[in-house]
Specification:
The complex is a heterodimer of chains A (about 270) and B (about 375). Chain A is α/β, with parallel strands linked by helices and about 270 residues long. Chain A contains 6 helices and 15 strands. In chain A, the strands form 3 sheets. A 7-stranded mixed beta sheet of chain A has the order 10-9-8-7-11-12-15, with helices on both faces. Chain B has helices spanning about 15-20, 110-125, 135-140, 190-200, 210-230, 240-245, 250-255, 265-270, 315-335, 345, 355-365, and strands at about 5-10, 25-30, 50-55, 85-90, 105-110, 145-150, 175-180, 180-185, 205, 275-285, 285-295. In chain B, a hairpin with a 3-residue loop joins strand 7 and strand 8. Helix content of chain B is about 35%, strand content about 20%. The chains are: A alpha/beta (about 270), B alpha/beta (about 375). The complex binds flavin-adenine dinucleotide, iron/sulfur cluster (3 copies) and FE2/S2 (inorganic) cluster.
Chain lengths: ~270, ~375
């Protein structure tokens, strides 16, 4: 029999980190090594219940295990949040195209994340760390709802100390313990030390955030071809067959999930 | 391989089927009366009976007919079943299931169905095993396709509007064309050749007279079908993408969806629709995965966590179906994902008619109201 594209591979939950009240990072150890490039996604199976798409948040250089950072929102994610170390899930993939790192060579990179959208971006950051000589500088602008909703809290400070990295975070709603910026993530997209003629922007977050960030970036002078967006739509197969994730002439699962705004700008209702 | 054509007499058609049944699970057309009768509103007298495909061993031989037009069910049901197990996972012990099925032979499919298989093949097959649906591929490659000319057509048939002829010239193993006293049998594959070789006594090479008789019959059906379609004024395939794009904000979608009861009939009976959902269930100590048909006329097709839905309004869902068929597929494979079989017209309790929608889109783009 040929390969069964619908069959999940067994993976054991090795570790669970509570990032925020609604977000956990799961370390999975697949039965066989699993490689992906940053920005690609997987379908994660809760046995007997079903699958949902997630983007690994770990270093793509590591093949034996993988992290996924998951926000609890519905059936599959709630069940996942109840699961314990040692339990078994399934994975299929990797799917899609991921970030075109070769196109970022020699550039200033502006990475903009919102909420759990920092998950895929973390795997991108890991990829950049190991190839940092290829890029001029990396700016990360990250927004979350409140200080309690920030993921990878412990790591962000460390990343900021790295050579060539410039990181600013913001929260929508401040509180007395929060020292940083208060306001939507678009409010920290100004006065950036960046060469617009030689920069790429990479955006990942909820659709409404991506919409306003894209508009802001265009406003700042970014060209549509230099804005990379991680699109999200209802998905099932991950393979360009089930029809759920169509956007214009594309299937997000197969042709994306990363697209330039240039590719999408003439398509109706891309943020819905 | 060069296609050979033979004559098979009326008395021998069952012998032909009997031979096929030796190697295949054969489905044959049987007439059925259905309550759906779309009358022709300008006076043509067109047949309204329907045909279904039944397993050969389960029918009385007298019931078997040569169907005048396509059967009720879309041909894809033979390769991609409505609900099908496509995986079983994490059993403690691996259960070896004997899933051997005899390959199917399907008699009674028409050229619209043959056209639609190009779309299904595009979706479910592929160059690389990482993207091929193994269940579809197995059935598809093993199947024996016995197509047939359409000596008649239904009110809902509109293949010719998209330059698809009501007879087949490729894409089949055998093709049957009715003559007065028998059939012309085209043999068009190695598989078919092997079978034909074993029943040479039933087959005589087609004569020139028989071949030109068939051409004349084919031309006559085309003339009548073209006259029928001239009343419907369906836009040509070359403008489909353009009018669907131009009509994005048209009121047509809203108006037409007023009578939709969201039954899903149009997507499930469609020859060219292919969407599905992977759905898991517990089965004993094990879990299994099902591939279940799904489609964009259904409300939850694009729902995501948190309640978002890119196709939240009914008009968006109807429009999505047209964008998919006439914009997405034209961009991706160069032709429309609609074969003109009219099954969606027959099935719709809301009388929503694809021909009417396309014509209205055309009129709005090209004949603006003065
Ligand atoms: C390419 C991609 C990458 C993603 N990466 C992450 C990530 O790293 N971390 C994270 O927390 N979330 C991610 N998401 C969102 C995540 O897939 C949804 O939160 C998840 O599907 C919700 O499933 P559920 O069963 O809990 O929700 P329910 O609302 O109960 O959904 C039931 C089913 O609907 C479908 N569905 C619902 N929401 C979505 C959605 N947003 N996208 C696709 N299908 C959906 C799924 O098939 C799901 O099983 C990603 C989505 C996509 C498309
Ligand atoms: S649509 Fe055309 S090919 Fe199909 S059954 Fe009708 S006449 Fe035959
Ligand atoms: S849209 Fe209607 S006419 Fe076209 S292939 Fe589907 S069922 Fe047939
Ligand atoms: S068949 Fe008609 S009523 Fe049923 S979902 Fe389709 S358009 Fe709506
Ligand atoms: S998820 Fe099935 S086509 Fe994209």
């Amino acid at each position: 029999m040929m390969k069964n594209i619908y069959q999940p591979v067994e993976a054991v939950i090795e570790n669970i980190i509570q990032e925020t009240s609604a977000i956990k990072t799961f370390t999975l150890k697949p039965k066989t090594d699993f490689s992906f490039v940053t920005g690609q996604f997987i379908e994660l199976t809760v046995p007997g219940l079903g699958e949902a798409p997630f983007t690994p948040s770990s270093d793509p250089g590591i093949k034996e295990r993988m992290d996924v950072t998951i926000m609890k929102t519905g059936a599959v994610t709630s069940k996942l949040h109840e699961m314990q170390k040692g339990q078994v899930v399934g994975i299929r993939g990797p799917f899609g195209k991921g970030y075109p790192l070769h196109k970022f060579k020699g550039k200033d990179l502006l990475i903009v994340g919102g909420g759990v959208g920092l998950a895929p971006l973390r795997s991108l950051l890991f990829s950049l760390f190991s190839t940092i000589d290829n890029y001029n500088k990396v700016l990360l602008r990250y927004g979350s709802r409140t200080a309690n909703d920030i993921v990878y809290k412990g790591s962000i400070g460390e990343w900021a100390k790295r050579d060539k990295f410039d990181i600013v975070t913001s929260v929508d709603i401040g509180d007395p313990s929060w020292q940083g910026n208060v306001g939507l993530v678009t409010t920290i997209l100004k006065d950036m030390p960046i060469d617009l003629n030689n920069a790429s922007a990479i955006v990942c977050g909820p659709p409404i955030m991506m919409k306003f960030v894209t508009l802001k970036l265009l406003d700042l002078g970014f060209k549509p071809k230099d804005i990379y967006l991680s699109m999200e739509k209802s998905m099932s197969c991950g393979l360009g067959k089930c029809g759920h994730c169509r956007l214009g002439k594309f299937y997000i699962c197969k042709d994306g999930p990363v697209f330039t705004y240039e590719e999408l700008k003439d398509i109706h209702d891309i943020w819905d | 391989m060069k296609m050979e054509t033979y004559f098979l007499s009326n008395e021998d058609i069952l012998k032909f089927y009997d031979r096929i049944v030796k190697d295949y699970q054969l489905y044959v057309p049987v007439k059925t009366k259905t309550p759906i009768k779309i009358a022709c509103d300008y006076g043509f007298s067109l047949p309204t009976d329907d045909y279904i495909l039944k397993e050969y061993s389960a029918v009385n031989k007298e019931e078997i007919v040569f169907n005048e037009y396509r059967p009720i069910e879309p041909v894809r049901t033979f390769f991609n079943q409505y609900k099908e197990e496509v995986g079983e996972y994490f059993a403690q012990e691996t259960i070896e299931k004997d899933k051997k099925e005899k390959p199917v032979a399907i008699s009674g499919i028409k050229n619209c169905d043959i056209f639609s298989l190009k779309i299904q093949d595009f979706v479910f097959l592929g160059k690389d095993d990482d993207i091929v649906d193994p269940f579809y591929k197995k059935r598809r490659q093993d199947a024996l396709i016995i197509s047939g000319d359409c000596p008649g057509f239904k009110e809902a048939c509109f293949c010719r509007a998209f330059d698809i002829n009501p007879y087949c010239e490729q894409g089949f193993d055998f093709n049957l064309s009715v003559l007065n006293n028998g059939y012309l049998v085209d043999v068009n594959s190695k598989k078919a050749n092997l079978i034909a070789g074993s029943i040479r006594d039933l087959l005589t090479p087609a004569t020139l007279g028989q071949l030109s008789g068939r051409s004349a019959k084919r031309d006559a059906v085309i003339r009548k079908l073209d006259e029928h379609l001239s009343h419907h004024k369906i836009p040509k395939k070359e403008v489909l993408q353009e009018i669907v794009k131009a009509g994005h904000n048209s009121q047509i979608w809203h108006e037409q969806m007023r009578t939709c009861v969201e039954c899903g009939g149009c997507i499930f009976m469609c020859d060219t629709c292919h969407c599905f959902l992977l759905s898991d269930e517990i089965s004993g100590n094990n879990s299994k995965r099902l591939r279940v048909w799904d489609g964009c006329l259904l409300k939850n097709f694009t729902r995501v966590a948190g309640g978002g839905n890119a196709l939240k309004m009914r008009y968006m869902r109807l429009r999505n179906r047209y964008i998919k068929k006439f914009d997405f597929f034209i961009d991706n494979i160069g032709f429309q994902a609609c074969c003109g079989c009219g099954r969606c017209i027959d099935v719709c309790p809301g009388r929503i008619d694809i021909r009417n929608i396309l014509r209205r889109l055309y009129d709005e783009k090209y004949l603006p109201a003065s």
